[in-house]
Amino acid sequence: MVLRLAWLALATAVSSVAGLTAIQQLNLGGHFAQESAVSLRDPRGLEIWPLFPTGEVPNERFGLEENHVAPNMKDLVGMFCAPGETTGNWYYNVTIPGLLPMLVDKSNPLFKDAAVIVVPGGGHSFLAWTKEGVEIGEWLNSIGISAFVLKYEVPETTVNFTRSVLNLQRAMSLVREKAPEFGLNASRIGVIGFSAGGGVAVRGNSLLDKLYDKVDEADSQSHLPDFQLLVYGNSGQGGVPISPMPTFIAHTSTDICCPVKQALDYYQLMSKLAPTELHIFPDGGHGFGSCRSYPEKWYEVCTWPDRAQMFLEQQVLHIPSQKSKR
Ligand SMILES: *[C@@H]1O[C@H](CO)[C@@H](O)[C@H](O)[C@H]1NC(C)=O
Ligand SMILES: *[C@@H]1O[C@H](CO)[C@@H](O)[C@H](O)[C@H]1NC(C)=O
Ligand SMILES: *[C@@H]1O[C@H](CO)[C@@H](O)[C@H](O)[C@H]1NC(C)=O
């Protein structure tokens, strides 16, 4: 109960400083640390909400040492899937899952009442935290949408998605519960998944039940997203969604890590169930993220955020296209 209150206090503190950029929040770390028994930080010092109270991570694993490091060019997954990746940080050995809030303040003229949980990739062995997490949150904030970057448990040794999916289920439930406090519409909470993170998203939305025992009232909230975006997502892992939602898919023909056939097959499945769009680019490979690191090389594919913005405005926010400010 004490920890539960700590989480609420933390959330309130974050809400009151919403509107600051992620970098500005850096300076508030000391303040948050006093509010919570659990102090988690991302590599830039930003406060991360724990997903579960201390000692209540389901089947908590021990003996792994969490590490955040510059991309390791010798990592086989990284080398194979995103050889151009050299910027930012990766997370290894995540055993205490969390959520990095990146909120847009209600007073911001760009404010929209939707939020997206960002699920980075990394082949279930690490998290591409900067490129497929924080930078994506910054992009969403720039178009008025709040973001929550999911720090899910890796490595997933069995790759049966138990840990990563239950982390996403819990994150979705927490964000829904807190939605009114942040001025968010609890029916406009979606997910964006990159690579393995896309696999977590599509797997998660095909499960009716939560994969963990109820921890607190937040778990009365649905864990199913209202919309989803998959960017070079491993959608081959997906089943039929429990509640079909508008879906945006961006992929390239030259993806050797998650073959484009996965995107085509998932489009075939989803388009029968809900508004679904599929963007296939001829070049760009895998792992381009928001494209900040690869702007010249893969120019066309780097329009995906513009297309995703239009999807969000039309399928989620229901802003008539002629009125959307672009
Ligand atoms: C992950 O934890 C294991 C076990 O402690 C350790 O051997 C390994 O070096 C860690 N990985 C990284 C990248 O820190
Ligand atoms: C998945 O992994 C979890 C945790 O290791 C294990 O308890 C569960 O039985 C596994 N499920 C399947 C279907 O293999
Ligand atoms: C919340 O979002 C849902 C789904 O888009 C919409 O039907 C509803 O009107 C919204 N509620 C408010 C108060 O805007």
Automatic annotation (TrEMBL):
InterPro entries on file = AB_hydrolase_fold (IPR029058), BD-FAE-like_dom (IPR049492), GDXG_lipolytic_enzyme (IPR050300)
Residue ranges spanning the membrane: these are none
Protein name, UniProt field: BD-FAE-like domain-containing protein
**What's a single GO MF annotation on this record?**
hydrolase activity
Residues of the signal sequence?
A: 1-19
Q: Which UniProt keywords apply?
A: Hydrolase, Signal
- Per the record, the domain of life is Eukaryota
Which organism's genome codes for this protein?
Polarella glacialis (Dinoflagellate)
Q: Which residues form the BD-FAE-like domain?
A: 115-202
